[in-house]
Design goal:
This protein is α/β, with parallel strands linked by helices. Helices cover about 20% and strands about 35% of the residues. It is built from five helices and 14 strands. The protein starts with a strand and ends with a strand. The relative contact order is 0.15.
């Protein structure tokens, strides 16, 4: 099952995000991410969070539409996005997750949202974060990446764990063959596609692939 989460960062609709939404079988709004849903004519199936940033008008509209609401206390030990991802763990059929609105706004929240996706509890989920400039993919031993784009597109590889081992790439200008990348190293920055299709696999660790589309 394909699921989409609307977070509360910045969101600019694109042709690709429109396609993702059309293919979505389950839509989750993390707190004020619900406003993006309504602005783009989408009703979320589930609203998750403490609702501290959600305006009453949006909440009322979702209540009338019978959206399932999972309300949490404002003093909690997880962000609304983490609560939304944790909720998806309860669906055995959910395998592919796209997060919209995870970037922009508060820088600490953007970083937190990215690192959150590397948590071991989500290792069996295929997760990507998209905005109007970048496609971010989470790669681990369970989920190799088959990437589509244009020759010359910029691809950067960033470890989200202390190291990522056994990295293999196909159709990248600077090939990696059973190599290791380390956190805080810039070695994986600014690679390039040499073909419209590429493949990236790892044996151990969690790797972030950033595909710049501008």
């Amino acid at each position: 099952m394909n699921a989409v989460i609307f977070a509360n960062g910045n969101f600019v609709a694109t042709t690709y995000s429109d396609l993702i939404l059309k293919q979505a079988e389950l839509i989750i709004a993390a707190d004020n991410g619900a406003r993006y849903c309504l602005e783009h004519g989408v009703l979320p199936d589930v609203l998750v969070g403490d609702l501290d940033s959600l305006c009453p008008r949006v909440l009322k509209e979702l209540q009338v539409a019978d959206t399932r609401i999972l309300l949490y206390p404002s003093e909690k030990n997880a962000t609304d996005l983490e609560l939304a991802l944790d909720h998806l763990l309860t669906y055995q059929s959910v395998t592919d997750i796209t997060i919209l609105g995870a970037l922009g706004g508060r820088f600490d929240m953007s970083l937190s949202n990215i690192f959150l996706t590397s948590h071991p509890k989500y290792q069996y989920m295929k997760i990507k974060i998209i905005d109007h400039q970048n496609l971010l993919y989470i790669i681990n031993a369970h989920h190799p990446l088959f990437l589509s784009g244009r020759a010359g597109d910029t691809i950067s590889l960033l470890p989200l764990t202390s190291s990522v081992e056994g990295i293999e790439t196909l159709n990248l200008r600077y090939a990696l063959k059973n190599e290791t990348l380390y956190a805080a190293s810039t070695r994986g920055i600014s690679n390039q596609l040499t073909n419209s299709e590429a493949k990236i696999t790892v044996n151990k660790g969690v790797l972030l692939c950033v595909h710049s589309i501008v």
